[in-house]
Amino acid sequence: ALQASFACKAHNQSQSYLANNQIRSSFKVAVLGAAGGIGQPLALLIKMSPLVSTLHLYDVANVKGVAADLSHCNTPSQVLDFTGTPELGDALKGVDVVVIPAGVPRKPGMTRDDLFNINANIVKTLVEAVADNCPDAFIHIISNPVNSTVPIAAEVLRQKGVYDPKKLFGVTTLDVVRANTFVAQKKNLKLIDVDVPVIGGHAGITILPLLSKTKPSVTFTDKEVEELTVRIQNAGTEVVEAKAGAGSATLSMAYAAARFVESSLRALDGDGDVYECAFVQSELTELPYFASRIKLGKKGVEAIISSDLQGLTEYEQKALEALKPELKASIEKGVAFAQKQA
Ligand code: NAI
Predict the structure, then answer these.
(1) Which of 13, 98, 128, 303 is 20 to 30 A from 268, alpha carbon to alpha carbon?
(2) Whose CA is nearest to atom 14 of ligand 1?
(3) Binding-site residues, ligand 1, Cβ < 6 A
(4) Complex ipTM above 0.90?
(5) pTM of the model
């Protein structure tokens, strides 16, 4: 019963992969910003994965206690703690997947772009260390604004001569998780079956759920499309306002990020059937980075799924054109920041 209530299709695939004893290997995962609102529950969920051998927790403060606490869970992975810049290199050595939720979250009235000045520097510094210590790792960027922090990370890696576009991901899984939940509620569907691709970026109108591509196939009225699209786009703000100054989504984000980590680990382990949405370098549109469904493999992005962009409804086509200028500006802001710092 627990599994059914917790489940979605990706989670289910993951459960069956694990239950069928197909695991070949186990992996080292690092969380940077591990003592934060996302970092702590994310570390807990990763600690539960049988695909993880070692979990490295890094933060600028308060990480010792989190690691001590977590290390008492009797799941196989070992938990190690690392505090502050002098220990950052060791936190990253030998790591297969690096997850970055370090940085400040939104307060009511703020857009994700308002976080740029602080989080841009944090992401830059952390990704420099990734480039120096584990350049082959998958990098999952959670820190907002994702539309800018992913281009920053790419530029930093490029400057260091180690950029592999197949291994850098902006984490947009929460948009998919929200879309699946809201669509299932609205259409009275079994949540476990619902899968809505979400494309574009990860802020406001750049988040574009492709409701016409919902699986299982389901029809929406124009009003339902409008309401669902706006709710999915503003879902983060719904949480920010409900928390009234205490931050943004942490628990649902941790759930979503853990799903993306698990999918990445399954791909690294050789599972040939792993699909997720993520914000990656892309040629799907004229923009250099774009979120869409991707196929994950051992080397990262194995394919970008272009078919989702074919046969869009008029509403989706308009929304796609409307989001491009904002997404383009956010990407350029990130690139300009990284190039100015170089
Ligand atoms: P938080 O403030 O609770 O935690 C952030 C953690 O980062 C803190 O423990 C802090 O000490 C740490 N930190 C700060 N500077 C650091 C550095 N240089 N190195 C390592 N750690 C550092 O914030 P929360 O709620 O965990 O959010 C983190 C980020 O995730 C925010 O930027 C937020 O906007 C973003 N976010 C992204 C979502 C997505 O869908 N991609 C969804 C929700 C939040």
Answers:
(1) 128
(2) 103
(3) 32-33, 35-39, 59-61, 101-106, 115, 119, 122, 125-126, 142-144, 146, 171, 174, 202, 247-250, 253
(4) yes
(5) 0.96
